[in-house]
Amino acid sequence: MGSEAVCRVSFKGEASEGKALLETAELIFRGDFRLKIPFNQVESLEASEAELRVGYDGSVAVFELGRNAEKWAEKIRNPRGLLDKLGVKPGMTVAVLGVEDDAFMAQLRGRVEEPSRELVPGADLVFFEADRVDDLVRLLDLRRAIEPAGGVWVVSPKGKGAVLKDVDVMAAAREAGLVDNKVVSFSDTHTALKLVIPKAQR
């Protein structure tokens, strides 16, 4: 989930009022024309006089953002990494169950000591791959394994073809004595929903 603003945008001879969205890895505009600028394709970036000027595709898109211009420029220059969004901190005990993502594992090993591929008591965070509703029967065991203030990230496929829906995860979480409190885009193909023990029960 990113920032959004209603603003005017000019790009390649077109200009329109619409909604600008600053997502994790791209800048989006929806108005009379649409624009999607991945951060890794930004050719230049400047914030001045309440305008955000973004070089892209051989031209410059001008976003009239007012006081948000500099703030958005900083977020584009220094986007939060996946582990920051997932709340992974050095020294944590982390278990990864069924999640097969080489890029994620490489980042994880760079921040915490070797993450466990098995469920360990007292885990601060558990990353659990769930593709079907039946996979969610493990949530009760995961709840028992985490620290009182720990969390379980349920990682599942996203998109129209996904079998498992967020509402399925939320319903299973309630049955296991957990509540959802955050969702993150885990990758191009997967989403992650964080489940925690309610504060009153910790």
Tell me what you see in this structure.
- The chain has 2 domains: 3-77, Roll (PH-domain like); 82-201, Rossmann fold, CATH 3.40.50.
- A 7-stranded antiparallel sheet has the order 4-3-2-1-7-6-5, with helices on one face. A 5-stranded mixed sheet has the order 8-9-10-12-11.
- It is α+β, with helices and mostly antiparallel strands and 202 residues long.
- Strand 9, helix 4 (139-145) and strand 10 (146-157) form a beta-alpha-beta unit.
- The protein has helices at 68-77, 82-86, 102-109, 139-145, 166-175, and strands at 3-11, 14-22, 26-30, 34-38, 44-48, 51-56, 59-64, 94-97, 123-129, 146-157, 179-185, 190-196.
* Portion in helices: 10-25%
Strand order of the largest sheet: 4-3-2-1-7-6-5
- Enter the CATH topology name of the largest domain: Rossmann fold
Q: What structural class do helix, strand and pairing data support? A: alpha+beta
- Any low-confidence stretches, pLDDT <50, length ≥5? none
Overall number of domains: 2
- Nearest-angstrom radius of gyration? 20 Å
> What is the average of the pLDDT values?
94
Portion in strands: 35-45%
Shape: elongated
Order of helices and strands: EEEEEEEHHEHEHEHEE
CATH superfamily of the largest domain: Vaccinia Virus protein VP39
Q: Given this structure, which CATH class of the largest domain is correct?
A: Alpha Beta
Assembly type? single chain
Reported CATH architecture of the largest domain: 3-Layer(aba) Sandwich
